[in-house]
């Protein structure tokens, strides 16, 4: 059996220059502004922008919580503490904005509706028509978190769930059609309680929309 000699040559050491990143302590965006998703017209001009709003009532339906985003993407270094033959070593790898997965969460349960079924259906249309994830991809859905920042981002939608956990592919859609909220003779409290009856039904479970940030739109 032959033997193979492998020669490993040492290259030039990589020098990492320290850098300080400042994000500022002030808030950005308009807290009363409604977020938007915009579908790339090059893929299809038929899907209109999704405004997180009940248009005929002028009520924003922004999520109750947004994970991994403040006024810009919040990326976290990947750290490991490794036990070696000599001693324990700490290793750190830096994440970038394009490594961040943002999750928008609308809270909902048996007594509170996160949004009308009509708005959920618009999100679902974006999910099933998301541009293909390909190498060299140039057309992305644009996410506009206007209540938190003036910046906009190219994103890939990864998942949408109703009544499921993080990343779970589950749609527990009940489409409640009670006549308004508890203040209007109905049985479920919701953000539109003082304004509806709604012409559509209501979701009664938590909704999660997960997106990977690809880049900032410049």
Low-confidence stretches: none
Largest sheet: 7 strands, antiparallel
Molecular shape = elongated
Helical percent range?
under 10%
Distance between the termini: 59 Å
Category from helices, strands and their pairing: mainly beta
Q: How many strand segments?
A: 13
How many domain regions?
1
List SSEs in N-to-C order. EEEEEEEEEHEEEE
Q: Give the radius of gyration.
A: 23 Å
Global mean pLDDT: 82
Topology record:
Layout: E1 36-38, E2 50-51, E3 53-54, E4 59-60, E5 65-67, E6 78-83, E7 88-93, E8 101-106, E9 112-113, H1 117-128, E10 141-144, E11 153-162, E12 189-190, E13 207-216
Parallel strand pairs: 9-12
Antiparallel strand pairs: 1-2, 1-10, 3-4, 5-8, 6-7, 8-13, 10-11, 11-13
